[in-house]
Amino acid sequence: MKYSKIFQYAYIVFAVLFAYDAIAKYINTGEIVYPSILLAALAVFMFFFRSRFRKKFENKDSSK
Q1: 39 and 7 in contact (C-beta within 8 Å)?
Q2: Angle between helices 34-62 and 2-29 (to 10 degrees)
Q3: pLDDT tens-digit map of 35-56
């Protein structure tokens, strides 16, 4: 269970890294980097998805 919590927060780390990459490239070149923005949004979505899935799984285990 602890590994799933660690990987869940890894998605937030990746979201911050991709957002930083998109902002840095926009400031330096004025170019909008859509793949980095998309990957940052996907990482945030995966964080919340994994969080909800983990909570459901824990509730299912505790009810047994």
Answers
A1: no
A2: 160
A3: 999 999 999 999 999 888 888 8
Residue in the structure block whose two tokens are 């840095």: 24
- Residues 6 or more apart in contact with residue 58 via CB below 8 angstroms: 1
Structure tokens at 61: 């285990």
10 Å CB burial of residue 13 (0-12, 13-18, 19+) is exposed
Q: Which alpha helices (H) appear in the chain, and where do they start and end?
A: 2-29, 34-62
pTM across the whole model: 0.80
Using an 8 Å Cβ cutoff, are 19 and 36 in contact?
Answer: yes
